[in-house]
Amino acid sequence: MSEATTLSEKNREYWDSNSNAYDAKPWIKVGVRMIADAVRSNLQWIGVEWVSKDGEGQNEKEVRMLDYACGPGNIANTLWPYVSQVHGVDVSGGMVEEFNRRAEAQGINAKQMFATQGDFLADLTPESAIAGPEFFNLDLLTCSMAFHHLDNPDLAAKRMVKHLKPGSGVVLIIDWTPDGDTKHKHGLESSHSHNPSQEPVSPHGQFKPHAAEHTIAHHGFSKERMEKILQDAGCVDIDYIVLEEPFKFGDEFNGMEKKCFFARGKRAA
């Protein structure tokens, strides 16, 4: 069994057992809302030609989205008013079930929002869950708060970008800046990092180890690191911004705060 598969299995097993409690804690709910608000505030920056829906919810155009490592559907639901179809993909069957349960509870048709179990770090075969034509030529592919769980984010990004429309499809990565990085600001201009390659050795210098620690492979991505990942994946029009408001962890993390970044790239023609 390869290292990537091993880490994927660890993530699958952990999130299967925690899928229905993923965002149950109050501090996680606050962080989820913060990220959702930031996504809505940056719709123009993301660079997708969003749909407009009439009063009955009918789309005037088609915008197809895939949410990788979709979890229970927080980003999918944030962007649902602006797209016509969302496919969720997650290595965890439990998360897939929770995603679909929440979509059904909102009365969203499964043809418009539905999740399936899949892994961009697994070799793509004709039998793969994400091998069908409905998973290609996408307008948007998102990966929120999961890149640090991927053993090989470079390979994942290359495979993700291949699912986008050439010349217009956008990939959006949301994750942590490197630990201790307080230099980035989210304003009118993009952020700049002065430490492009170094990643912290451990994320737990100031708080007790978390139950999901064994599922984490990276502890933040700098602007230069994300630029290289997206350039090597075949993207142009790359940008990286950092949210001004920090993500505030709960008491089990001694009140630690971390900054989130948005990284965007468009598949080259």
What does this structure look like?
The structure is a single chain. The protein is an alpha/beta fold. The relative contact order is 0.16.
Layout of strands and helices, then pairs:
Blueprint: H1 3-18, H2 26-41, H3 43-46, E1 64-68, H4 74-79, E2 85-90, H5 93-105, E3 113-117, E4 140-144, H6 153-161, E5 170-176, H7 223-232, E6 235-242, E7 247-248, E8 257-258, E9 260-267
Parallel strand pairs: 1-2, 1-4, 2-3, 4-5
Antiparallel strand pairs: 5-9, 6-9, 7-8
Strand content is: 15-25%
Strand ordering within the main sheet: 3-2-1-4-5-9-6
Tell me the structural class: alpha/beta
Roughly what percent helix? Answer: 25-40%
User: What is the average of the pLDDT values?
Assistant: 82
Terminal Cα span: 36 Å
Number of helices: 7
The stretches of 5 or more residues where confidence is low (pLDDT under 50) are 1-5, 181-208
Number of strands: 9
Q: Kindly provide the radius of gyration, computed on alpha-carbon positions and rounded to a whole number of angstroms.
A: 18 Å
Major beta-sheet overview: 7 strands, mixed
Question: Keywords, please?
Answer:
269 residues; alpha/beta; globular; disordered N terminus
